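Backbone shape codes:
***
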Amino acid sequence: MISTYQKPLADVDQARDQHLAYIADLEERGLAVTAGRQEPPTGGIILLDVDTEAQAQELIAQDPYVQQGLATYAAVGWQISRGALADYQRKY
């Protein structure tokens, strides 16, 4: 999921702790592989481990950034083929 901030960065940052807690929960449940803010900070990327775009959209709808109108997300499918994540295995 690739996000684009819809509000000024100062507004986004007020909800950042809530957003990061949500991402941490996804990681603990084996649904998020990694995440981070883009540079420059115009949005972020969350690599989800789900089977369908519908699942990704359902999860991202619960992100505090989305619920507060601070960011929108676009789903981009991706298949790991090499590099640091080439041997990635699902947790659950």
